[in-house]
Amino acid sequence: MASANAPAAEHTLAVLTLLARHATPLAAATISRELGLPRSSTYHLLKVLTSRGFVIHLPEEKRYGLGVAAFELGSAYTRHAPLQRLARPVLTRLADGTGHNAHLGVLHGKDVIYVIEERVAGRPSLVSDVGVRLPASLTATGLAILAALPAAQVRALFPSTDAFVQRHGTGPRSLSTLRLLLTQTRARGYAVEEGFVTAGMDSVAAAVLDHSGHPVAAVAVTAPEELLTPELRTDLATQARRAAEEISRRIGHRGQPPTAAARTRVGP
Length: 268
What we know:
The protein is an alpha+beta fold. The chain is built from ten helices and eight strands. Helix content is about 45%, strand content about 20%. The strands form two sheets. Strands 5-4-3-8-7-6 form a six-stranded antiparallel beta sheet, with helices on both faces. The chain has a two-stranded antiparallel sheet with strand order 1-2.
């Protein structure tokens, strides 16, 4: 429902949001119907948005799609690095609160790239520094993200055994093994990595979700295996999940974390 104070702004944003959520351009009648707007108002909004470059009209198809100006807005959003800015104070508190190194990674292909690393004095150094790329199937960060993706996307990322890499001869070597790890991740609500990346170092991680519920990153905490009692592992996982949920809220996620059953149905 449009705001009483700025209905035109609400309707404009509704049109742009609707176009962004569809993979193909839409007819004006479809936009009008889905948003519950009068056709005259819809055509007026589309005319203004087209003149400013936010919407493009495809006359042969009689449809409308997002224009270059909308793309430029998205590019500007990326340049401002909002995820890192919003997540950094949360990661700082997580590292301070747990006394262990905390990091944030994003998925790039079948790898994870670390964008934030919060080190704790006196703790062992890690390979997961900012800008470092590691196989997603070997890291708790990657497993947390992969567990929240559709099964088809995971299969596309790992189509054969050649897609899997080991650092110390440990970690999944096939899609079936990876599926088992992802099922376990969804069931417990967080990912676990035990020495896949660095021998003697274990990690727990939870996914960060955007406004649509898509995993855009994951928060992880890493600690020496010798210190990780079952109680400490559970505590670190709980704090990592809370941090991930806070970052998710900060970037616009409003839903509740999915249940274990729901996660199991969605994933591989």
